[in-house]
Amino acid sequence: MYLSKGCKCEEAVLLCLCFFCYFLFATALITDPTEVDALRTIKGSLIDTNGNLSNWDRGDPCTSNWTGVMCLDTTHLLNMNLSGTLAPEIGRLSYLEVLDFMWNDITGSIPKEIGFINPLKLLLLNGNQLTGELPEELGFLPFLIRFQIDQNNITGPIPLSFAKLNTTVHFLLDNNKLTGELPSELSEMPSLKILQLDNNNFGGNSIPHSYANMSKLIKLDLSFNQFNESIPTNKLSDNITTIDLSNNDLIGTIPSYFSRLPRLQKLSIANNSLNGSVPSTIWQDRILNGSEMLHLDMQRNQFTSISGSTNLPPNVTLWLEGNPMCSNNNTLAQFCGSESDSSINGNFSVSCPTQACPPPYEYTVDCFCAAPLVVNYRLKSPGFSDFRTYMNAFQSMMSRGLKIHIIQFHINKFEWEEGPRLGMNLKLFPMYVDDNSSHVFNTSEVLRLRNLFLDFDLPTNDLFGPFELLDFILLDPYRDVTVTSPSSGISKGALAGIVLGAIAFVVTFSATILVLRLRLRDTPSKRTKASRVSIKIEGIRSFYYEEMQAATNNFSVSARIGQGGYGRVFKGVLPDGTVVAIKRAQEGSLQGEKEFLTEIELLSRLHHRNLVSLIGYCDEEGEQFIQKNLLLFP
Ligand SMILES: *[C@@H]1O[C@H](CO)[C@@H](O)[C@H](O)[C@H]1NC(C)=O
Ligand SMILES: *[C@@H]1O[C@H](CO)[C@@H](O)[C@H](O)[C@H]1NC(C)=O
Ligand SMILES: *[C@@H]1O[C@H](CO)[C@@H](O)[C@H](O)[C@H]1NC(C)=O
Ligand SMILES: *[C@@H]1O[C@H](CO)[C@@H](O)[C@H](O)[C@H]1NC(C)=O
Ligand SMILES: *[C@@H]1O[C@H](CO)[C@@H](O)[C@H](O)[C@H]1NC(C)=O
Ligand SMILES: *[C@@H]1O[C@H](CO)[C@@H](O)[C@H](O)[C@H]1NC(C)=O
Ligand SMILES: *[C@@H]1O[C@H](CO)[C@@H](O)[C@H](O)[C@H]1NC(C)=O
Ligand SMILES: *[C@@H]1O[C@H](CO)[C@@H](O)[C@H](O)[C@H]1NC(C)=O
Ligand SMILES: *[C@@H]1O[C@H](CO)[C@@H](O)[C@H](O)[C@H]1NC(C)=O
Ligand SMILES: *[C@@H]1O[C@H](CO)[C@@H](O)[C@H](O)[C@H]1NC(C)=O
Ligand SMILES: *[C@@H]1O[C@H](CO)[C@@H](O)[C@H](O)[C@H]1NC(C)=O
Ligand SMILES: *[C@@H]1O[C@H](CO)[C@@H](O)[C@H](O)[C@H]1NC(C)=O
């Protein structure tokens, strides 16, 4: 949950409840006392099993380090195992734009006072145990974009006032215990694209006539309810791609307009009592472009025949199992097998050479060790049943939306769940550009990507449909990077960068680091006598260029084990048998003398379980001063 965006004004308090919070503080903010009181009251009505909010009773939320309270225009949330109820005082947070208590265990009813938070844009209460009815006041929110209270135990009808939500694009109330008929007034919501009301106890007429007026509607999910009339014949928007009416008690025949929906990709009317014949015009007259598919699930109804051709165009699937026509007609056998419920899941790991990155770093697809941002994500009602054909399209849509390169976006795992929904484990990696690429995202990039997910600020398309975020996991390196402590001399961010530069190459070896620096002419044979850089660090040896040459078989390709941070890395064996990694800088990316010495000193002081220690360095000086820096990591 956060209160107004931006913190130029005093009241700009951002409050978040999250599992992995950043602690970022703006110093001079003084929070409006009304809001502070409101926060205290809200806390008082929650049961904080983990004690995460125990510091919410002293000082000012913005200056006294309240857990999860953020005073910058970053947002955040996520499951914190909170139970208890939502206090009505929440309505006093009058600058709130996002109210986010997703995936907790909050009980009680939804305070009607939420309806008075004028600026509210995202109302996210899904995944709790909320009961009671929907307050009609929620319909008064003039800027609400996303209404998401799915997966609770809400009862009663949808209030007519919701028709006034004229900015709402996503309206999700699925998986509750709502009853009554669907209000025809909802057709007055001009911005609505996704209407998801499945798994409730609605009855009567399924699609009110007026819904024909919802011109932007692309997805309508009314499955698993008790609609028991015939499907109205008023044509829905040409924009519609998904209609799911399965698992109701619908009667009558298929309305003819189902054959006139130019963008339809998924139609499910399975498990109803529809009868008559199935018009082949649904698929016959369709022109499917590019990657479009048409998936028609009509199983377990009372259909007696197909009127028209049974030749399906490519990319159309039709399921008819469990209809009378299947029991006595062999020509329909191809449609009468039951849809294989062996939903195919996927698991993808990148395969890179022998070495492994030290956890939590992982190989990217281009075999570069980096720390991913891990995202658990779910498509709530995808318009396909086999994801494999759409993985590329999904990757490109998401990477475009996140403004990252497609190779930074990795689908680690996907798994079909009840619904059917498609759960995914995603990994976002920093980009490998050249050897100086960072192995972690910088803080602002992490925050930017996080916000895109948390604010639902990502593109969806008709095919993939609405999504939900289950978790945004920040691994160890990001906790270091994001916690900035201005007082200490060396920032943790910088330190992490250095450690990372090194550990990316600490692979199968486990001894010590040897840092070398060479200055030599074009032709090593003509090199003059070496002179040493004046650096004395206890326990650090110095080496000659020739020794490094010998150790690596003249920097042969076969000795090369990697590439990154400061240049190429070679495996070498010193005369005494010590196995080392040797890092050789790229020409043109030269360090100054001072930087080089600083680096050696720093490396000699660093102790980290993932970081090997420094054993030595080398500096040779030739006449023409072509510099090559070599670092050795065992
Ligand atoms: C909440 O408390 C639990 C248990 O003390 C702890 O493991 C977790 O890190 C805390 N979360 C936050 C966001 O402070
Ligand atoms: C804020 O709280 C965190 C964790 O509770 C602690 O590590 C940090 O030192 C605190 N900072 C200040 C300025 O009190
Ligand atoms: C959440 O709280 C319940 C008790 O209310 C506890 O049993 C459970 O272990 C907690 N879960 C986590 C992840 O902290
Ligand atoms: C919500 O509904 C589920 C499933 O019907 C039930 O298990 C759970 O106890 C209910 N919770 C509350 C708070 O009523
Ligand atoms: C929504 O309705 C309000 C009043 O009912 C009106 O002022 C506003 O302009 C409408 N917004 C849109 C986007 O139609
Ligand atoms: C259809 O559903 C409505 C509302 O649930 C109910 O009142 C009515 O009796 C049902 N009609 C039939 C024929 O089952
Ligand atoms: C659609 O909207 C128009 C104008 O608002 C209205 O006249 C018409 O009755 C509506 N159609 C239905 C089926 O409600
Ligand atoms: C489809 O939706 C777009 C906006 O998303 C709208 O401009 C257009 O009029 C709609 N098309 C139809 C046929 O309703
Ligand atoms: C239809 O209902 C049966 C039994 O209730 C269920 O097993 C099946 O999954 C349903 N089919 C679809 C397509 O939802
Ligand atoms: C279809 O079912 C309805 C009632 O559910 C019935 O009145 C009608 O006669 C049936 N039509 C056919 C062709 O079986
Ligand atoms: C659609 O059909 C065409 C032609 O058979 C085929 O090349 C294409 O791969 C199909 N697309 C999908 C998404 O299956
Ligand atoms: C089987 O179905 C096809 C296509 O609907 C139809 O042409 C044919 O007459 C049917 N045969 C029987 C015996 O019903």
Automatic annotation (TrEMBL):
User: Which species?
Assistant: Phaseolus vulgaris (Kidney bean)
The record's section on PROSITE patterns has: PROTEIN_KINASE_ATP, PROTEIN_KINASE_DOM
Entry membrane topology: Single-pass membrane protein
Q: Binding residues for ATP, per the UniProt record?
A: K583
Query: What coarse category fits the chief subcellular location reported for this protein?
Result: membrane
Q: Which PANTHER family match?
A: OS01G0960400 PROTEIN (PTHR45974:SF134), RECEPTOR-LIKE PROTEIN 55 (PTHR45974)
Documented EC number(s): 2.7.11.1
Q: Does the keyword rRNA-binding apply?
A: no
Q: Name one GO cellular component term.
A: membrane
What keywords appear on the UniProt entry? Answer: ATP-binding, Glycoprotein, Kinase, Leucine-rich repeat, Membrane, Nucleotide-binding, Repeat, Serine/threonine-protein kinase, Signal, Transferase, Transmembrane, Transmembrane helix
Which residue range or ranges hold the Protein kinase domain? 555-634
Where does this polypeptide localize?
Membrane
The top of its lineage is: Eukaryota, Viridiplantae, Streptophyta, Embryophyta, Tracheophyta
Q: What is this protein called?
A: non-specific serine/threonine protein kinase
